[in-house]
Write a structure and sequence with these properties.
Elements (H helix, E strand, L loop, with lengths): L1 E3 L9 H14 L5 E4 L4 E5 L11 H6 L6 H17 L4 H4 L3 H6 L6 E2 L14 H8 L3 H14 L3 E6 L7 H8 L4 E2 L16 H12 L7 H8 L1 H6 L16 E4 L5 E2 L3 E3 L8 E7 L1 E6 L2 E5 L2 E2 L2 H6 L11 E10 L2 E12 L11 E3 L6 E5 L17 E3 L1
Parallel strand pairs: 1-2, 2-6, 7-18, 14-16
Antiparallel strand pairs: 3-5, 4-5, 7-11, 8-10, 9-10, 10-17, 11-12, 12-13, 14-15
Length: about 375
């Protein structure tokens, strides 16, 4: 049995009681595994998504919300300046349920680029208001207008009751917990969770000042732990005879970028994608599907085959040599997997994590052109 576990604002300590119950169940031999995400469950506010000024009369009268983004933007500045200048009084904003439920200034944080997913109170709209000495909604608007209207504000719905991710860490590291969750499509234009795997490695294993998670433990969370939960016995580890799903990552260079809007769904529908640097290659079932941030076409070629047509090349041994932050000796991983295109003739060589920029795309929801680790798919053995 598995279930979603988060910290909620109505009962911020409920997660502790639920973890106590799962521990008791484990002691009785009953496997109950809560799934925990690596950061807040949030809505991203902006002119590309949605914002509080859309709830003002002047925005509705302008008709801007019905226009495509590129056509909408030139008129948004003047319209929202007008909306800001004629904004309802604070007590009236409090009566707009959507605004105060998902866009409250004290719980809306400047995301930035690169994005900050554990901001302090000073990065909230009210914190910035206090520093600037300006009005709340004027400041809210100024933040949204930054970078040509592409700036985003992060509005946590879950996992930020205490103004930090301490509770999230505790939920992640408990022995019964499994790293997982993430919105896979219902809110593709409002949030982007496909990057949580990258965030697990870049933030929890490298950047957080306190309470870091060891790199090898973060890799286990994102690979074998999830594979075991779903009974995917052929993946999640670099062992002889397994699929050979590998991400080769330059850990010091691993960096998320701010989500951006794309209109590449059927009918030109929108979704948010999030790019990342630091992915050297992605190998799926022994085939290099992404190299230096670009699709190789291998995944598409395999998907076009009729059932039963695909023939896996003979397995060859491959060494993965990893240097993390230049410290310590290399950690060698050995796996049996098929030949890797032009690397077939030197399969016994080593793949080194180099200090070069690499790009990956995190797309919401995941598609066949997903670049980087797919968070909803278990068992991607990360080449660390």
């Amino acid at each position: 049995m598995t279930f979603a576990l988060n910290q909620n604002n109505a009962d911020p300590n409920q997660w502790e009681r639920l973890l106590g119950l799962t521990a008791a169940a484990a002691a009785d031999g009953v496997a109950v595994r809560p799934q925990v995400t690596a950061r807040t469950v949030s809505i991203l506010l902006g002119f590309q998504t949605f914002h509080p000024f859309a709830f003002t009369p002047v925005w509705g009268q302008s008709g801007l919300g019905l226009l495509p983004w590129r056509s909408r933007w030139p008129g948004s500045v003047a319209t929202c300046r007008c909306a800001s200048g004629s904004s309802p009084k604070p007590e009236r904003w409090r009566r707009i349920r959507w605004v105060m439920g998902f866009m409250a200034p004290e719980r809306s944080y400047l995301l930035g680029n690169p994005p900050d997913y554990e901001p302090s109170g000073a990065a909230s709209v009210t914190g910035i208001v206090a520093a600037r000495g300006a009005g709340v909604w004027e400041t809210f608007l100024d933040l949204l207008l930054a970078d040509g209207g592409r700036e985003l504000l992060n509005s946590p719905v879950l996992n930020y009751s205490d103004g930090n991710l301490d509770a999230t860490r505790e939920m992640l590291v408990r022995p019964t917990s499994v790293f997982g969750l993430g919105d896979g499509g219902a809110h593709a234009g409002q949030t982007c969770d496909a990057s949580t795997t990258t965030f697990l490695l870049s933030y929890w294993a490298r950047d957080r000042r306190e309470g870091r998670i060891a790199v090898e433990e973060a890799v286990r969370m994102a690979t074998s732990s999830t594979a075991d939960l779903y009974g995917l016995g052929d993946r999640g580890r670099l062992l002889a005879g397994m699929r050979g799903d590998v991400n080769v990552i330059d850990l010091p260079a691993l960096q998320l970028h701010r989500p951006e809007l794309a209109h590449d769904l059927p009918g030109g529908a929108r979704r948010l994608i999030q790019r990342a640097d630091g992915y050297i290659a992605t190998v799926n079932a022994g085939q290099v599907t992404v190299e230096e941030g670009e699709d190789t076409g291998a995944a598409l070629a395999r998907s076009s085959e009729e059932p039963g047509e695909h023939r896996t090349p003979p397995a060859v041994p491959v060494h993965v040599d990893v240097r993390v932050d230049g410290g310590g000796g290399p950690v060698l991983g050995r796996a049996l997997r098929p030949g890797l295109g032009r690397d077939q003739g030197r399969a016994s060589g080593r793949l080194r994590l180099l200090g070069r920029p690499h790009r990956a795309d995190h797309r919401c929801p995941g598609t066949r052109r997903h670049r980087g680790p797919a968070p909803a798919r278990a068992g991607h053995a990360v080449g660390l």
